[in-house]
């Protein structure tokens, strides 16, 4: 719809490119719902856009929220993001006098219920990896594997450059503040799929978008939640952060590292004079997750 393009152009200098892409996807989802709800074709919606927008009510917006919650299983954080996008869109429409009233003005955010983290065991992690299929299976296995084995944050995953990877030493450099680099290590199983992945067309970043830029943090979360959902672990309370905590459990159980050593190894700045311990390849190989196709 033309109004969506106008709205996105109006905010393009205040938010990031990836945020714009996210907003566009959310509004496309909303338009798809409207066409389904009112039995409209693309042509019918586009040719009578302004008239149709004036007929949208608060009830229609709540119906959309219920739809995405039931159809896609969106949690409270995802729902609130979509609600925020709708508020911004309809606020723009009323400010520009395209609409005389704002149907989203009284739409409330949903209450966020903080679920307890569910930390999967080694068998469940293998089931999670085995559930990853499709043309991007190698990339997605590697991405989730780097969280499970190396405990990487989403922001760290998106910043990895191909030159940061050292296959001969089973490690990679992670960029921190002030260009400081710390090294994390991976086991031979993860090295195998990492080596294969690097043989594909790579440029600057290990995980790249179609535009040859680093993939967004939002994309990483979407990939992780997709497979957590398909494997049934998301419903149990496993999140991206839960997988990082799973890595801590593995480092403690298999690599004999204590809590402070683990926190320092994973990049937390500690006041204590904690010895920086790097897990050996032999101990990391005891984390028996199979990443092969």
The DSSP helix count reads 14
Biggest β-sheet strands, sense, barrel: 3 strands, antiparallel
- The largest sheet has its strands arranged as 1-2-3
Q: Kindly provide the radius of gyration, computed on alpha-carbon positions and rounded to a whole number of angstroms.
A: 22 Å
* Mean pLDDT over all positions: 86
Structural class, by secondary structure, is: mainly alpha
Q: What is the 3D shape?
A: elongated
Q: How do the helices and strands follow one another from N- to C-terminus?
A: HHHHHHHHHEEEHHHHH
Poorly predicted sequence stretches spanning 5 or more consecutive residues = none
**Helix fraction?**
40-55%
Strand content: under 5%
- Work out the number of β strands: 3
Distance between the termini: 42 Å
Q: Main traits of this protein?
A:
293 residues, mainly alpha, 3 strands
Question: How would you concisely characterize the structure shown here?
Answer:
This protein is mainly alpha-helical and 293 residues long.
How would you describe this structure to a colleague?
This protein has about 290 residues and is mainly alpha-helical. About 55% of the residues lie in helices and about 5% in strands. The chain has helices at about 1-10, 15-40, 40-45, 50-55, 60-70, 75-95, 120-130, 135-150, 155-160, 190-200, 215-230, 240-255, 260-265, 280-285; strands at about 165, 170-175, 180-185. Strands 1-2-3 form a 3-stranded antiparallel β-sheet, with no helix packed on it. A hairpin with a 5-residue loop joins strand 2 (about 170-175) and strand 3 (about 180-185). Helix 1 (about 1-10) packs antiparallel against helix 2, helix 8 runs antiparallel to helix 10 and helix 8 (about 135-150) crosses helix 12. The longest helix has 22 residues, at about 15-40. It is elongated. The chain starts with a helix and ends in a 9-residue tail after the last helix. The model has no long low-confidence stretch (mean pLDDT about 85).
């Amino acid at each position: 719809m033309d109004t969506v393009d106008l709205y996105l152009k109006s905010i393009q200098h205040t938010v990031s490119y990836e945020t714009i892409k996210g907003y566009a996807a959310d509004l496309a989802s909303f338009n798809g719902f409207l066409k389904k709800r009112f039995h409209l074709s693309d042509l019918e919606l586009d040719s009578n856009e302004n008239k149709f927008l004036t007929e949208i009510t608060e009830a229609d917006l709540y119906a959309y929220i219920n739809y995405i919650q039931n159809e896609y299983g969106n949690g409270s954080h995802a729902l609130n993001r979509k609600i925020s996008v709708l508020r911004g869109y309809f606020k723009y429409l009323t400010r520009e006098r395209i609409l005389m009233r704002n149907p989203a003005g009284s739409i409330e955010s949903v209450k966020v219920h903080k679920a307890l983290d569910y930390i999967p065991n080694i068998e469940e992690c293998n089931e999670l990896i085995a559930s990853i299929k499709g043309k991007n299976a190698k990339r997605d296995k590697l991405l989730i594997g780097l969280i499970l084995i190396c405990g990487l944050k989403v922001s760290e995953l998106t910043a990895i450059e191909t030159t940061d990877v050292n296959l001969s030493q089973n490690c990679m450099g992670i960029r921190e503040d002030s260009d400081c680099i710390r090294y994390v290590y991976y086991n031979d199983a993860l090295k195998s799929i990492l080596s294969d992945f690097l043989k594909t067309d790579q440029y600057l970043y290990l995980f790249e978008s179609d535009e040859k830029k680093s993939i967004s943090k939002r994309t990483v979360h979407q990939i992780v939640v997709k497979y957590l959902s398909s494997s049934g672990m998301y419903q149990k309370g496993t999140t991206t952060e839960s997988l990082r905590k799973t890595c801590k459990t593995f480092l403690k159980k298999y690599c004999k590292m204590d809590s402070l050593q683990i926190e320092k190894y994973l990049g937390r700045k500690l006041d204590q004079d904690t010895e920086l311990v790097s897990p050996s390849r032999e101990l990391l190989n005891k984390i028996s997750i199979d990443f092969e196709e």
